[in-house]
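We append the chain.
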Amino acid sequence: MHSHPLCAEMQFSAGRVRELLEFLRIGPGDESNLEAIHTLLEGELDALVQEFYAVVREQEHLRHYLGGAGTVARLETAMRHYLATLGQSVGDLDYFEERLRIGFVHEGIGLSMQWYLGMYPFLFGWIARRLAQRCAADAARLAELLASLQKVIALDGLLAVETYHRASNKRLEDVLCEQYLVEQDLRVSTTHDSLTGILNRESVLEAIEVEFLRSRRFHHDVSLLIIDLDDFKSINDRFGHPFGDHVLSDVARLIASTLRPGDLVGRYGGDEILVGLPGCSLQDAMRIAERVRLKASLARIEHGGISASVTLSIGAAASTPAMRSSEQLLECADRALYAAKAAGRNRSRAARPGCDATTGPQGPDQSSASADD
Protein backbone atom coordinates (compact mmCIF):
# COMPACT_ATOMS: atom_id res chain seq x y z
CA MET A 1 0.00 0.00 0.00
CA HIS A 2 1.43 3.39 -1.08
CA SER A 3 1.87 6.22 1.39
CA HIS A 4 0.60 9.64 0.38
CA PRO A 5 1.84 12.10 3.04
CA LEU A 6 1.40 15.19 0.88
CA CYS A 7 -2.10 14.18 -0.15
CA ALA A 8 -2.94 13.71 3.51
CA GLU A 9 -1.41 17.09 4.46
CA MET A 10 -3.23 18.85 1.62
CA GLN A 11 -6.43 16.89 2.34
CA PHE A 12 -6.57 15.25 -1.08
CA SER A 13 -8.76 12.25 -0.38
CA ALA A 14 -10.11 9.99 -3.09
CA GLY A 15 -13.36 11.93 -2.88
CA ARG A 16 -11.67 15.30 -3.32
CA VAL A 17 -9.67 13.95 -6.25
CA ARG A 18 -12.91 12.95 -7.97
CA GLU A 19 -14.42 16.37 -7.31
CA LEU A 20 -11.41 18.11 -8.82
CA LEU A 21 -11.41 15.89 -11.90
CA GLU A 22 -15.11 16.54 -12.36
CA PHE A 23 -14.51 20.29 -12.02
CA LEU A 24 -11.88 20.17 -14.78
CA ARG A 25 -14.08 17.75 -16.75
CA ILE A 26 -11.33 15.14 -16.93
CA GLY A 27 -12.88 11.77 -17.72
CA PRO A 28 -12.07 8.37 -19.23
CA GLY A 29 -12.04 9.88 -22.72
CA ASP A 30 -9.30 12.30 -21.70
CA GLU A 31 -7.17 9.50 -20.27
CA SER A 32 -7.56 7.68 -23.60
CA ASN A 33 -6.55 10.82 -25.49
CA LEU A 34 -3.53 11.31 -23.26
CA GLU A 35 -2.47 7.75 -23.92
CA ALA A 36 -2.71 8.50 -27.64
CA ILE A 37 -0.58 11.61 -27.15
CA HIS A 38 2.12 9.52 -25.47
CA THR A 39 2.04 7.12 -28.42
CA LEU A 40 2.28 9.93 -30.99
CA LEU A 41 5.19 11.55 -29.17
CA GLU A 42 7.05 8.35 -28.43
CA GLY A 43 10.74 8.85 -29.02
CA GLU A 44 10.59 12.64 -28.82
CA LEU A 45 10.84 13.09 -25.06
CA ASP A 46 14.62 13.52 -25.13
CA ALA A 47 14.29 16.28 -27.72
CA LEU A 48 11.70 18.06 -25.59
CA VAL A 49 13.88 17.81 -22.48
CA GLN A 50 16.91 19.17 -24.36
CA GLU A 51 14.92 22.05 -25.82
CA PHE A 52 13.41 22.88 -22.43
CA TYR A 53 16.79 23.15 -20.68
CA ALA A 54 18.21 25.10 -23.60
CA VAL A 55 15.52 27.70 -22.91
CA VAL A 56 16.32 27.59 -19.18
CA ARG A 57 20.02 28.25 -19.85
CA GLU A 58 19.09 31.37 -21.79
CA GLN A 59 17.49 32.87 -18.68
CA GLU A 60 20.10 34.51 -16.51
CA HIS A 61 17.88 34.23 -13.43
CA LEU A 62 17.60 30.46 -13.83
CA ARG A 63 21.15 29.37 -14.66
CA HIS A 64 22.35 29.09 -11.08
CA TYR A 65 19.58 26.57 -10.33
CA LEU A 66 21.12 24.13 -12.80
CA GLY A 67 24.39 23.70 -10.93
CA GLY A 68 26.94 21.25 -12.31
CA ALA A 69 26.61 18.41 -14.78
CA GLY A 70 25.35 16.02 -12.10
CA THR A 71 22.51 18.34 -11.15
CA VAL A 72 21.55 18.88 -14.78
CA ALA A 73 21.47 15.12 -15.36
CA ARG A 74 19.15 14.63 -12.39
CA LEU A 75 16.90 17.44 -13.55
CA GLU A 76 16.69 16.00 -17.05
CA THR A 77 15.82 12.56 -15.66
CA ALA A 78 13.07 14.10 -13.54
CA MET A 79 11.70 16.00 -16.54
CA ARG A 80 11.61 12.83 -18.67
CA HIS A 81 9.72 11.05 -15.90
CA TYR A 82 7.26 13.94 -15.64
CA LEU A 83 6.56 13.86 -19.37
CA ALA A 84 6.33 10.07 -19.46
CA THR A 85 3.70 10.11 -16.68
CA LEU A 86 1.77 13.16 -17.84
CA GLY A 87 -1.89 12.31 -17.36
CA GLN A 88 -1.17 8.63 -16.68
CA SER A 89 -3.59 7.17 -14.08
CA VAL A 90 -4.62 10.76 -13.40
CA GLY A 91 -7.33 9.72 -10.94
CA ASP A 92 -4.97 7.85 -8.60
CA LEU A 93 -3.54 9.31 -5.41
CA ASP A 94 -0.08 8.28 -6.62
CA TYR A 95 -0.39 10.78 -9.47
CA PHE A 96 -1.51 13.56 -7.14
CA GLU A 97 1.24 12.76 -4.62
CA GLU A 98 3.91 13.04 -7.29
CA ARG A 99 2.54 16.29 -8.74
CA LEU A 100 2.15 17.84 -5.30
CA ARG A 101 5.77 17.08 -4.53
CA ILE A 102 6.90 19.15 -7.52
CA GLY A 103 5.56 22.36 -5.98
CA PHE A 104 7.28 21.71 -2.65
CA VAL A 105 10.60 20.94 -4.33
CA HIS A 106 10.64 24.11 -6.43
CA GLU A 107 9.61 26.32 -3.54
CA GLY A 108 12.28 24.68 -1.41
CA ILE A 109 15.09 25.62 -3.79
CA GLY A 110 13.83 29.21 -3.92
CA LEU A 111 12.63 29.21 -7.53
CA SER A 112 10.18 32.05 -8.12
CA MET A 113 6.69 30.89 -9.04
CA GLN A 114 6.66 32.96 -12.23
CA TRP A 115 9.51 30.89 -13.67
CA TYR A 116 8.09 27.66 -12.35
CA LEU A 117 4.60 28.21 -13.77
CA GLY A 118 6.08 29.36 -17.06
CA MET A 119 7.03 25.72 -17.68
CA TYR A 120 3.43 24.69 -18.28
CA PRO A 121 2.64 27.00 -21.24
CA PHE A 122 6.00 26.03 -22.72
CA LEU A 123 5.20 22.32 -22.46
CA PHE A 124 1.71 22.79 -23.84
CA GLY A 125 2.98 24.81 -26.80
CA TRP A 126 5.78 22.35 -27.58
CA ILE A 127 3.48 19.29 -27.46
CA ALA A 128 0.71 21.11 -29.36
CA ARG A 129 3.08 21.91 -32.22
CA ARG A 130 4.18 18.28 -32.47
CA LEU A 131 0.58 17.08 -32.40
CA ALA A 132 -0.42 19.58 -35.09
CA GLN A 133 2.27 18.11 -37.35
CA ARG A 134 1.03 14.56 -36.82
CA CYS A 135 -2.71 15.31 -36.99
CA ALA A 136 -2.69 17.89 -39.78
CA ALA A 137 -5.21 15.86 -41.77
CA ASP A 138 -7.66 15.43 -38.88
CA ALA A 139 -8.53 18.74 -37.29
CA ALA A 140 -11.31 17.25 -35.15
CA ARG A 141 -8.94 14.67 -33.64
CA LEU A 142 -6.32 17.34 -33.02
CA ALA A 143 -8.89 19.46 -31.16
CA GLU A 144 -9.81 16.50 -28.93
CA LEU A 145 -6.18 15.79 -28.08
CA LEU A 146 -5.38 19.42 -27.35
CA ALA A 147 -8.45 19.77 -25.13
CA SER A 148 -7.38 16.76 -23.05
CA LEU A 149 -3.79 17.99 -22.93
CA GLN A 150 -4.93 21.43 -21.75
CA LYS A 151 -7.01 19.88 -18.96
CA VAL A 152 -4.17 17.80 -17.52
CA ILE A 153 -1.68 20.68 -17.84
CA ALA A 154 -4.21 22.84 -15.94
CA LEU A 155 -4.50 20.14 -13.26
CA ASP A 156 -0.74 19.90 -12.81
CA GLY A 157 -0.44 23.68 -12.65
CA LEU A 158 -3.23 23.90 -10.10
CA LEU A 159 -1.57 21.31 -7.86
CA ALA A 160 1.78 23.04 -8.22
CA VAL A 161 0.35 26.42 -7.22
CA GLU A 162 -1.45 24.96 -4.23
CA THR A 163 1.59 23.17 -2.87
CA TYR A 164 3.88 26.07 -3.69
CA HIS A 165 1.68 28.36 -1.60
CA ARG A 166 1.41 25.77 1.15
CA ALA A 167 5.19 25.38 1.25
CA SER A 168 5.66 29.17 1.26
CA ASN A 169 3.14 29.60 4.07
CA LYS A 170 4.77 26.82 6.06
CA ARG A 171 8.16 28.43 5.57
CA LEU A 172 6.73 31.75 6.74
CA GLU A 173 5.11 30.06 9.74
CA ASP A 174 8.43 28.41 10.60
CA VAL A 175 10.22 31.76 10.36
CA LEU A 176 7.61 33.47 12.53
CA CYS A 177 7.69 30.61 15.03
CA GLU A 178 11.48 30.78 15.20
CA GLN A 179 11.30 34.56 15.63
CA TYR A 180 8.74 34.11 18.41
CA LEU A 181 10.96 31.58 20.18
CA VAL A 182 13.95 33.90 19.87
CA GLU A 183 11.89 36.77 21.28
CA GLN A 184 10.67 34.53 24.10
CA ASP A 185 14.23 33.47 24.88
CA LEU A 186 15.30 37.10 24.83
CA ARG A 187 12.40 38.09 27.06
CA VAL A 188 13.19 35.30 29.51
CA SER A 189 16.88 36.18 29.51
CA THR A 190 16.10 39.80 30.37
CA THR A 191 13.38 39.13 32.96
CA HIS A 192 14.52 35.88 34.59
CA ASP A 193 17.46 34.94 36.76
CA SER A 194 19.88 32.78 34.75
CA LEU A 195 20.73 30.50 37.70
CA THR A 196 17.33 29.77 39.23
CA GLY A 197 15.00 30.39 36.29
CA ILE A 198 12.68 32.55 38.41
CA LEU A 199 12.19 36.30 37.90
CA ASN A 200 15.22 38.49 38.43
CA ARG A 201 15.28 41.29 40.98
CA GLU A 202 14.16 44.08 38.66
CA SER A 203 11.31 42.05 37.16
CA VAL A 204 9.89 40.71 40.41
CA LEU A 205 9.99 44.16 42.03
CA GLU A 206 8.22 45.62 39.01
CA ALA A 207 5.57 42.89 39.11
CA ILE A 208 5.01 43.41 42.83
CA GLU A 209 4.65 47.16 42.27
CA VAL A 210 1.93 46.44 39.69
CA GLU A 211 0.10 44.14 42.13
CA PHE A 212 0.43 46.69 44.93
CA LEU A 213 -1.12 49.43 42.79
CA ARG A 214 -3.87 47.05 41.69
CA SER A 215 -4.60 46.17 45.33
CA ARG A 216 -5.03 49.87 46.18
CA ARG A 217 -7.32 50.46 43.23
CA PHE A 218 -9.56 47.46 43.79
CA HIS A 219 -9.25 47.38 47.60
CA HIS A 220 -7.94 43.85 48.03
CA ASP A 221 -4.94 42.45 49.90
CA VAL A 222 -1.52 41.72 48.55
CA SER A 223 1.12 40.04 50.69
CA LEU A 224 4.85 39.60 50.42
CA LEU A 225 7.30 36.95 51.61
CA ILE A 226 11.04 37.40 51.82
CA ILE A 227 12.73 34.00 52.07
CA ASP A 228 16.33 33.55 53.13
CA LEU A 229 18.36 30.31 53.03
CA ASP A 230 19.79 29.78 56.51
CA ASP A 231 23.59 29.58 56.75
CA PHE A 232 23.93 29.55 52.96
CA LYS A 233 27.49 30.83 53.24
CA SER A 234 28.47 27.74 55.21
CA ILE A 235 27.06 25.54 52.42
CA ASN A 236 29.24 27.34 49.88
CA ASP A 237 32.28 27.17 52.18
CA ARG A 238 31.79 23.49 52.98
CA PHE A 239 30.71 22.06 49.64
CA GLY A 240 31.80 24.70 47.13
CA HIS A 241 29.94 27.29 45.09
CA PRO A 242 28.78 24.88 42.32
CA PHE A 243 26.87 22.84 44.90
CA GLY A 244 25.63 26.07 46.50
CA ASP A 245 24.28 27.18 43.13
CA HIS A 246 22.48 23.84 42.79
CA VAL A 247 20.97 24.25 46.27
CA LEU A 248 19.71 27.74 45.45
CA SER A 249 18.25 26.55 42.15
CA ASP A 250 16.52 23.57 43.78
CA VAL A 251 15.07 25.70 46.56
CA ALA A 252 13.76 28.23 44.02
CA ARG A 253 11.98 25.43 42.14
CA LEU A 254 10.61 24.03 45.40
CA ILE A 255 9.19 27.42 46.35
CA ALA A 256 7.69 28.02 42.91
CA SER A 257 6.05 24.58 42.93
CA THR A 258 4.43 25.30 46.30
CA LEU A 259 2.81 28.57 45.29
CA ARG A 260 -0.56 29.19 43.67
CA PRO A 261 -1.03 29.99 39.98
CA GLY A 262 -0.60 33.73 39.58
CA ASP A 263 1.76 34.14 42.53
CA LEU A 264 5.07 35.88 41.87
CA VAL A 265 8.50 34.52 42.70
CA GLY A 266 11.87 36.08 41.98
CA ARG A 267 15.44 36.22 43.16
CA TYR A 268 15.76 39.30 45.35
CA GLY A 269 19.52 39.06 45.72
CA GLY A 270 22.13 36.53 46.80
CA ASP A 271 20.26 33.77 48.62
CA GLU A 272 17.07 35.77 49.21
CA ILE A 273 13.89 35.00 47.29
CA LEU A 274 10.91 37.32 47.04
CA VAL A 275 7.34 36.01 46.76
CA GLY A 276 4.34 38.17 45.85
CA LEU A 277 0.89 36.87 46.85
CA PRO A 278 -1.93 38.83 45.16
CA GLY A 279 -5.30 38.71 46.93
CA CYS A 280 -3.74 37.11 49.99
CA SER A 281 -4.20 38.27 53.57
CA LEU A 282 -1.37 38.20 56.09
CA GLN A 283 -2.91 35.16 57.78
CA ASP A 284 -3.06 33.28 54.48
CA ALA A 285 0.46 34.44 53.62
CA MET A 286 1.73 32.94 56.89
CA ARG A 287 0.10 29.62 56.04
CA ILE A 288 1.82 29.63 52.67
CA ALA A 289 5.11 30.62 54.30
CA GLU A 290 4.89 27.71 56.75
CA ARG A 291 4.03 25.31 53.95
CA VAL A 292 7.12 26.44 52.02
CA ARG A 293 9.34 26.32 55.11
CA LEU A 294 8.24 22.82 56.16
CA LYS A 295 8.54 21.46 52.64
CA ALA A 296 12.10 22.80 52.39
CA SER A 297 13.10 21.41 55.78
CA LEU A 298 11.97 17.92 54.74
CA ALA A 299 13.77 18.05 51.38
CA ARG A 300 17.22 16.65 50.71
CA ILE A 301 19.39 18.39 48.12
CA GLU A 302 21.62 15.97 46.23
CA HIS A 303 24.07 16.76 43.47
CA GLY A 304 27.41 15.36 42.36
CA GLY A 305 27.49 12.82 45.16
CA ILE A 306 26.88 15.49 47.80
CA SER A 307 23.76 15.52 49.94
CA ALA A 308 22.64 18.32 52.23
CA SER A 309 19.53 19.70 53.91
CA VAL A 310 18.50 23.34 54.15
CA THR A 311 16.21 25.47 56.28
CA LEU A 312 14.51 28.74 55.51
CA SER A 313 13.76 31.90 57.43
CA ILE A 314 10.74 33.79 56.14
CA GLY A 315 9.36 37.26 56.74
CA ALA A 316 5.77 38.05 55.74
CA ALA A 317 3.90 41.32 55.37
CA ALA A 318 0.54 42.39 53.94
CA SER A 319 -0.54 45.69 52.42
CA THR A 320 -2.55 48.11 54.52
CA PRO A 321 -4.55 51.26 53.61
CA ALA A 322 -1.81 53.37 55.17
CA MET A 323 0.85 52.14 52.79
CA ARG A 324 1.69 54.44 49.92
CA SER A 325 4.21 52.30 48.04
CA SER A 326 5.35 48.74 47.53
CA GLU A 327 8.67 49.77 49.09
CA GLN A 328 6.90 50.11 52.44
CA LEU A 329 5.47 46.63 52.05
CA LEU A 330 8.94 45.34 51.25
CA GLU A 331 10.43 47.06 54.31
CA CYS A 332 7.84 45.41 56.56
CA ALA A 333 8.55 41.95 55.14
CA ASP A 334 12.29 42.58 55.52
CA ARG A 335 11.88 43.50 59.18
CA ALA A 336 9.85 40.35 59.75
CA LEU A 337 12.63 38.31 58.11
CA TYR A 338 15.15 39.98 60.43
CA ALA A 339 13.01 38.92 63.38
CA ALA A 340 12.81 35.31 62.13
CA LYS A 341 16.58 35.08 61.82
CA ALA A 342 17.15 36.76 65.17
CA ALA A 343 14.78 34.27 66.80
CA GLY A 344 16.95 31.33 65.74
CA ARG A 345 16.20 30.83 61.99
CA ASN A 346 14.11 28.07 60.40
CA ARG A 347 10.89 29.90 61.17
CA SER A 348 8.34 32.32 59.75
CA ARG A 349 7.54 35.75 61.16
CA ALA A 350 4.77 38.18 60.27
CA ALA A 351 5.27 41.92 60.31
CA ARG A 352 3.67 43.52 63.36
CA PRO A 353 0.56 45.70 63.02
CA GLY A 354 1.44 49.28 62.16
CA CYS A 355 4.76 48.35 60.61
CA ASP A 356 4.02 50.59 57.63
CA ALA A 357 3.72 53.63 59.91
CA THR A 358 7.26 53.33 61.29
CA THR A 359 10.74 53.75 59.91
CA GLY A 360 14.02 52.21 60.98
CA PRO A 361 14.91 48.64 61.93
CA GLN A 362 12.82 46.51 64.25
CA GLY A 363 14.04 43.98 66.78
CA PRO A 364 12.71 40.43 67.05
CA ASP A 365 10.50 41.36 69.98
CA GLN A 366 8.48 43.67 67.69
CA SER A 367 7.43 40.93 65.31
CA SER A 368 4.41 38.67 65.53
CA ALA A 369 5.30 35.07 66.29
CA SER A 370 4.46 32.13 64.06
CA ALA A 371 2.67 29.01 65.14
CA ASP A 372 5.91 27.09 65.68
CA ASP A 373 7.10 29.23 68.61
